[in-house]
Fold this sequence. Notes:
The complex is a heterotetramer, with two copies of chain A and two copies of chain C.
Chain A: H1 7-18, E1 24-26, H2 31-41, E2 48-50, E3 55-57, H3 71-74, E4 79-80, H4 83-91, E5 97-100, E6 104-106, E7 111-112, E8 115-116, E9 124-125, H5 132-138, E10 141-146, E11 153-154, H6 171-175, E12 182-187, E13 190-194, E14 201-206, H7 212-217, E15 224-231, H8 237-246
Parallel strand pairs in A: 1-2, 1-5, 5-10, 6-11, 10-12, 14-15
Antiparallel strand pairs in A: 2-3, 3-4, 6-7, 8-9, 12-13, 13-14
Helix pairs in contact in A: 1-2, 2-8
Chain C: H1 3-10, E1 16-18, H2 29-37, E2 43-51, H3 53-59, E3 63-72, H4 80-88, E4 95-98, H5 101-113, E5 117-120, H6 128-131, E6 136-139, E7 146-151, E8 157-165, E9 171-172, H7 180-186, E10 189-197, H8 200-204, E11 217-222, H9 240-249, H10 253-265, H11 270-277, H12 279-285
Parallel strand pairs in C: 1-2, 1-8, 2-3, 3-4, 8-10, 10-11
Antiparallel strand pairs in C: 5-7, 6-7, 8-9
Helix pairs in contact in C: 1-2, 2-3, 3-4, 5-7, 11-12
Amino acid sequence: MKQAYTPAELMVVVAAREIKDREVVFVGMRLPLIAFAVAKRLHAPNAIGFFENGVVRDTPSASLLYTMGDPPNIEDALQCCRMTTVMGLMQKGEVDLGFLGGAEVDRNGNINTSYVGDPSAPRVKLPGSGGAADIASLARRFVVIIEHNDRRLVERVGYLTSPGNGDGAHWRANEGLPRGGPAAIITTMGVLRFGFESGEAYLDTIHPGVKLEDVKAKTGWPLMVTPVLKPTPEPTDEELRIIREVDPKRFWTS
Amino acid sequence: MKQAYTPAELMVVVAAREIKDREVVFVGMRLPLIAFAVAKRLHAPNAIGFFENGVVRDTPSASLLYTMGDPPNIEDALQCCRMTTVMGLMQKGEVDLGFLGGAEVDRNGNINTSYVGDPSAPRVKLPGSGGAADIASLARRFVVIIEHNDRRLVERVGYLTSPGNGDGAHWRANEGLPRGGPAAIITTMGVLRFGFESGEAYLDTIHPGVKLEDVKAKTGWPLMVTPVLKPTPEPTDEELRIIREVDPKRFWTS
Amino acid sequence: MTMRDAIAQHVPDGSSVALGLALEALIPFAAGHELIRQNRRDLTLIGPISDILFDQLIGAGCVKAIVAAWVGNVSAGLGYNYRRAAETGVPNKIHIEDHSNFTMALSLLAGGLGAPFIPARTLLGSDILKTNANLRAAASPLDGEQVLLVPALVPDVAVLHVQRADETGGNHCWGNLGVSEEGGLAATKVIVVAEEIVGVDVIKSDPNRVLVPAHRVTAIVHEPGGAHPSPVQGYYGRDTDFYQEYHTQSQTAEAFEQWRQRWIGAIGSRAVYLKLLGAERWRALAVKDKKLAAPANFSAT
Amino acid sequence: MTMRDAIAQHVPDGSSVALGLALEALIPFAAGHELIRQNRRDLTLIGPISDILFDQLIGAGCVKAIVAAWVGNVSAGLGYNYRRAAETGVPNKIHIEDHSNFTMALSLLAGGLGAPFIPARTLLGSDILKTNANLRAAASPLDGEQVLLVPALVPDVAVLHVQRADETGGNHCWGNLGVSEEGGLAATKVIVVAEEIVGVDVIKSDPNRVLVPAHRVTAIVHEPGGAHPSPVQGYYGRDTDFYQEYHTQSQTAEAFEQWRQRWIGAIGSRAVYLKLLGAERWRALAVKDKKLAAPANFSAT
């Protein structure tokens, strides 16, 4: 019989499976950090993790991180260089994948982490891009991890912090972005991927136990669905074991 | 009674006196390196030396250098950074003085270290700029040290590697150079300085024992002379003592 | 030099100040608190991300403008003072110049290089270009392709917290670098805050570990614990609880006033701050183990 | 990997190769000699200054083009092979792309940053802009001022000599840096040549001393003495006599042929080269003292 798991744990394993062996990944904090640990231990032993503060790692840190600057992320790092080094290599095209969160993500995979409402008199001032807009601009592909509701999955972001597919598939090239774009949105209800021709997100798999009508109701635009909708593959026992080793107090994954 | 000294020793002390206290100096090798040591010990104890390989020093190296990359130049350095760091600070305007040599220097202080004859089929291929063209472009002022003869002091360089005053006083600003220009040419016969309005070199002091007519004869253009020509002040005993401490085998200063 | 003198002499009202350039580590909180104590006004704060320090300075009314990629509380969430200032002008309106981490890094890199700008491929199509007039897309003069022009930034002052420094300005920093070096080369004045003051020979023993050229250092402040609650590799860990407590205790302007009075206003120095923190809590954060860098021989002979 | 295999597999005819990026120290002579032994052709050599290594490769007919700021013999004078090739096409004509040190550094910096170019204020008015079509003055799109556009340079291979490396590509380099880091980030492939091979734990004990990210390292070669006659800080000094001898023994093409036969052709490996150099001479160059970098604690706990 399958083990029980939390939605966060399912999101972590979906994220982990996005990481291929030997890829260079801009890891970020929280769930993607645990996903990186799972991937390294299972199917991507030679993946490399980049952090914006200049840290390069080939192993997850020995203890759980609250920020990428925490001392355990430095100890046993492959390298501690400057931000310009890791970001420069990304601009050069040497980062395969980056993980992003956000307050809002839209139909075309654009992300807002800056303002709700008019930027000159915002209803909510969000923290801002950090490195997210750079990862969205420059990584070979990026994956969004976000809670699924219609305040977060919106028709069009109120402020485009991190570029997805803009208003369609050809928008990135027109703007001068050198590559990349959104590969998936991993939510609490399913996994969305992007139409090659439209640049628009569609539902690719649905999490076990979730109803399609609920997904549609909680999405801020008329959601396209793949013709052959399958359930998101569940976490294996091994994946769950590693997640719980990495986050023993369930700080991020409860 | 005054001590005897070599022409090289006189050139070193003239160069040393160009260095003011607290200045940042792109030192270079050979005579300027010894001049830096003299200045540090006497009148410029807080001068800082920059080297193109990224070395920053506040003391001369413990033993004589043949290249700036020699291990004694690293040991006890203030910092070993990257070339972009020291060159960047110079571009920013933070280097006061640089010393340059050359195969040819002309009436307006332009220097050739690249080609004799047509560059596409040169009679002599010289080693090239190294960092000299950058120092000439970006330091607040530069000083040339060169043997005095009419093959070296020419009307106009055959190839302008390192910009002096171009064809006149306003040339640098017209070309877009941010500052700087030649302050002096220290030769084996005298010291040339530059007219503020003309940008042209004139004889400012003449080395003891040298005849003005010989200086003129060995200069490749009709040399202007200051109305009150004085002899170049001779090295003091203290200056000579330090030079001979720094270069005990007289490798550079014989 | 004391922190009080360094801030009094080198960071007047209206200065642009780069802080927190190593990102979540080595944040010069002691310097920030001294700015608040001295009631500094009209500052422009510069830094890629700020983990609650900018929020505190904003709440204390010291700030006119923010040049940053991210301002908040990294492990706990939003920065309430930042929100209040941006959303309702409390305690005062602030001008926000939005950046990404990379454009912050490139603008400081350009500043230190003396390059007027650096062309990049990031942010093309982002609304950041609409709200930050200093970031502009243009045709590259090289080949006509679209590039982002990231103009050089030269802060009046950069404050850098490091592990150790000597009395002449020499300094060693290890672990997190972020944009510390770029900021230290770009800024007109550099204040170095050190956990330890060591002999010049210690710094010169490893010239590759120097963060900023000694002659560019305007002031050296010996301030052990000066980065708390952020970590200093080899000295102390991150006090994550402190960030969580700040989050809870800064939700209203009134609550922040109390927090500020307790941790900054009523305190004359970092030593008193650490006493208030409590010896036990401070001891628990201290690094006890040794994992030393492998030896490197710099001998020439 | 042996030097023979590294060169055979990663530096085919026609490659652009960055060498000597630390300037007069850490010059990968062993790699250059292996290129000559394998009779490589049509190489483009990239490096700010070259202290006789480029001269040797030119004399051996390996070179099609030079992208450099300075080529010669730093302590002894001109490079005769360079002169012969440039002046009389012996052994073959070479294309020379003149740079200054700073434009070389900026072009590699831009290459590693993925920036199309970096604008600079150097060389404006220099004839270098007339003989190097890749360096061009233009109006800055920022403010119309005159700037030099320094385009990015991405060498096919960079060869970097370092003090120590591990089997996975991790590497430590100290002392002279020059443009080593920029070159290692810009180049498509990176060959690291190390005096010592150490455990991964040694490299990871000091992540700030790493020159090039391990995952960018294409091949690691263990080649003690591989930088002779250039120095390696903490390992051996500069053999200045050797440069003087080379100067004397390369004045004619015939003399260089003899020098080449003796020091490269008749020799299968660096070990034999060091034997030819003589144990006494090699011992005299060795660093005997210890001046270790002050300890730095990277422990998190």
